[in-house]
């Protein structure tokens, strides 16, 4: 079970991801979390840096889908202006939203990666589906919701402790 919490790659930010390396390994699609992965949890809009990164990703031939546990209003308000398809209320780490994202991109699991800031949702869900998982450092952990702080981050710390042993 603990192996399912280990990402294939860990980076500080999305900007540190080697896109050429992903493409060389056969990755053609990116499933990404929103809050604390692309922008801070309370940031309503994409930053100019993020918009440039997304344009670069698309120019390189990657497809992108945002998969978020957040509600429709939050995800739609963020994703629509930057024209990125999205799945809201995803219930990660369950498989349904990951499957739906793969269907939207018309890709198999081995052709996509998941980028997220949480081991208990993004990494666990992605690994269970056979996706290449990338864990980023949360952008603004002080703005995380109660459940993330009280439950997920505590479970992550416990898992990391046991993995180090």
UniProtKB/TrEMBL annotation:
InterPro entries: HAD-like_sf, HAD-SF_hydro_IA, HAD-SF_hydro_IIIA, HAD_sf, PGPP1/Gep4. Gene3D superfamilies: HAD superfamily/HAD-like (3.40.50.1000). It comes from the Bacteria. This is YqeG family HAD IIIA-type phosphatase. It comes from Gordoniibacillus kamchatkensis.
């Amino acid at each position: 079970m603990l192996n399912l919490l280990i990402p294939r790659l860990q980076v500080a930010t999305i900007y540190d991801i080697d896109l050429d390396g992903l493409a060389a390994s056969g990755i053609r699609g990116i499933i990404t979390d929103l809050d604390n992965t692309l922008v801070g949890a309370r940031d309503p809009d994409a930053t100019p840096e993020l918009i440039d990164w997304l344009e670069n990703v698309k120019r390189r031939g990657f497809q992108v889908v945002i998969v978020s546990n957040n509600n429709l209003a939050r995800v739609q308000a963020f994703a629509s202006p930057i024209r990125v398809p999205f799945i809201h209320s995803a219930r990660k780490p369950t498989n349904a939203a990951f499957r739906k994202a793969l269907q939207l991109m018309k890709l198999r699991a081995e052709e996509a990666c998941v980028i997220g800031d949480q081991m208990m949702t993004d990494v666990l869900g992605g690994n269970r589906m056979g996706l290449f998982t990338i864990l980023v450092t949360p952008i603004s952990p002080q703005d995380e919701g109660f459940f993330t702080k009280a439950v997920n981050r505590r479970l992550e710390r416990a898992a990391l402790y046991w993995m180090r042993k």
